[in-house]
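Section 5.1 Outputs to date
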Amino acid sequence: MTNALELVDLTKRFGDTLAVEGLSLTLEPGAFLGLLGRNGAGKSTTLKMVTGLLKPTAGHIRVLGLDLETEPLAVKRQIGAMPEDMALLDMLTGPQYLRFVGRMYGLEDAAIDGRRLELFDTLELAPGPRTLIAEYSFGMKKKVALCAALLHGPRMVFLDEPFEGIDPVTSRTIKDILLALQQRGVTLVLTSHILEVVEKLCPLIAILDEGRLKGFGPLDDLKRGGESLEQLFVDLVGGTRKGALSWL
């Protein structure tokens, strides 16, 4: 069985800063990975490399059995990505943007519009017909970015902080969508600082700190002491409790 994702000694350097160092891991098809780490740990950089937005300094990436360096277009046709900054075209309306995205994947306009209507209805996204994305709220932009990541029916999906700025009702809907995708055999990787969400959604966990992999494996195996994901995370990244503020 071909692995969905293979990272071998993946490294990214920005000048003198080592953002990701020697990252190696493998995901089977249908895996659901929660990629965790503090701010600046290398999560977003890793997702940008595996989706072809950043070129690694060193290392090797295979996605769905394809070499990302030699077959980037073939990889991108089969994956969906929601980057941290969402990368939307703000001067288009939401429907116009999804029409643009769908055409890039070779979808017919009728199919694009049908899928867009279903996505918008499911996510309760109802912007005015002439309202530009620039005028959308942060949460609405997040929903549009998620729609763009799923529109073409990808075999693998990478989501960077998909629950940030999302209300609880929509968060529940997104969880249901992601779990349904996994049941269909889609491989998912997401980052989130909301550890409770990751603990409920992701049976597989990877924890980065200062660009290095500190823990990787099934959540139940990593939590052998029965501690919470939060405690496991703090233990692995070396976090310490801080005292109360002196003036409070």
